[in-house]
Design a protein that fits this description.
The structure is a homodimer.
Chain A: E1 11-21, E2 26-32, E3 42-43, E4 46-48, H1 55-67, E5 73-80, E6 91-99, H2 105-110, E7 116-120, H3 131-148, H4 162-173, H5 179-188, E8 192-199, E9 207-212, H6 214-222
Parallel strand pairs in A: 1-6
Antiparallel strand pairs in A: 1-2, 1-4, 2-3, 2-7, 5-6, 8-9
The first copy, chain A, binds a DNA duplex through residues 161-163, 178-181, 183-185, 200-208.
DNA sequence: AATGATAGTGTATGAAACACACTTACCAAT
DNA sequence: ATTGGTAAGTGTGTTTCATACACTATCATT
């Protein structure tokens, strides 16, 4: 390749912090590296950016290739450019974070050759490169995001109960929330549609199922409304 | 250069959205490009990342080189990687935004060969590359930032009056703010130290000068306190 | 019929947001 | 010295929102 600039190019990667929720713990999807460096270490899914794709496209492609996940909530997080973050040469990584619904969890775990596994956020193994730092920043971002934008449903099945939603908020934020206040507030936003269905699990009163209303959400976003829970 | 990876490298640039405040308008520092592409167009200060420097270092170096500004508030904004954002070849740009105190404005305008000029945010000329998009996102970020973190003083002189601070908030957020409520709220955070000095300008009652208390601010940040105005 | 488990609901209190108008201090002009 | 113009500075009442808190309803199991 001919250099039109006199400046050296850098190898570019994308890395994805994939969050999931199993009803109790916030989880992160990790893959075990098959090649050096950091062979056999756990790492964030990701890989090199190709010249003919945008950064977002690269992130989505890598997600499919390494975890089988597609059509997930995906947002750019931060770009990491420390000089020695890759032992081989200068590699700059654009980090993304993804929110994945439970329906996709099985696909994610089972797909392809490289081993992929969900880890609870409280029990993350040592990670390759500076991926621990990336994960740390992603978690902070998720916490912030969750408190001022209704993205929680991205981590839940299409139909969910208010208790499930509350458990999710508690897991991500690491706090206990009062049930009545939580329901009052969540419902006041008028973004949840009660379904005719109920969830019957176990020997107790069945729970009302809701689904998220994306139309109303878009309307709110356009008006610049944000809000916290 | 020998490729240890089989993937092509990309040219990497940093671009800086430099915000200033002249007492009335929020302003942005632009430079006129001396070389193609977009020769003679206005653009954000920025340039290529070198292999031996981090992204932050590159952003600060370019700021000094192109505008003479140093020791300013600087934060990474977003990374832009559309394929055709540079007409020559694939260039990925890590955008930053900076907040500059008025004392530095003159230095900024006067330095070096390339022409540099402050433009009010309401009268930005056509910009090179996708810099209009970058500016747009930076402005949104600044608005968000200002509403939940006390960064306003980064755009004011070391000594400032509450009215100046209010004008700044009004200029950035594009709203009118009630004087009494604003003062009540700002002072309640206990981050401003009243000085023995007053500002006398014009035929009216002189205004109390304050300075920001960085020590108390750090203490708040550590506790994870954020707040809005 | 009794037990155990989770769903679901209302009210009272305190804190913060918001709306709102007049007095004070200085300068300049007469 | 008085007047007029200009921006600084100040307090209260109202409303809205956050928080704390305990019991009843419904189902499955025995």
């Amino acid at each position: 390749m001919k250099h039109t600039y006199q400046y050296p190019r850098a190898a570019l990667t994308v890395d994805c912090v994939v969050f999931g929720f199993d009803g109790g713990d916030l989880q992160v999807l990790l893959i075990r590296r098959a090649i050096p460096p950091f062979k056999d270490h756990w790492a964030l899914p990701g890989g090199f950016v190709r010249v003919e794709e945008t950064l977002d496209e690269a992130a989505r492609r890598e997600l499919v290739e390494e975890t089988g996940l597609k059509d997930v909530f995906l947002e750019q997080l931060y770009t990491f450019g420390t000089i020695d973050r890759d032992p081989r040469e200068r590699v700059v990584s654009i980090a993304y974070y993804a929110l994945v619904k439970p329906a996709d969890h099985t696909t994610a775990a089972s797909t392809d050759a490289a081993e992929a596994r969900w880890y609870p956020i409280t029990g993350i193994p040592p990670l390759a490169f500076d991926h621990a730092t990336i994960l740390d920043i992603a978690l902070k971002r998720l916490r912030g995001k969750l408190t001022y934008q209704p993205v929680g449903f991205e981590l839940l099945p299409a139909k969910f109960t208010l208790t499930q939603l509350q458990r999710l908020y508690e897991a991500v934020l690491g706090t206990e929330i009062d049930k009545r206040n939580f329901r009052k507030k969540v419902l006041s936003f008028d973004l949840l549609i009660p379904l005719k269905e109920q969830l019957r699990d176990g020997p107790h009163r069945p729970a009302q199922l809701f689904r998220f209303d994306p139309v109303k959400y878009e309307r709110l976003k356009k008006k610049g409304f944000l809000f916290e829970i």
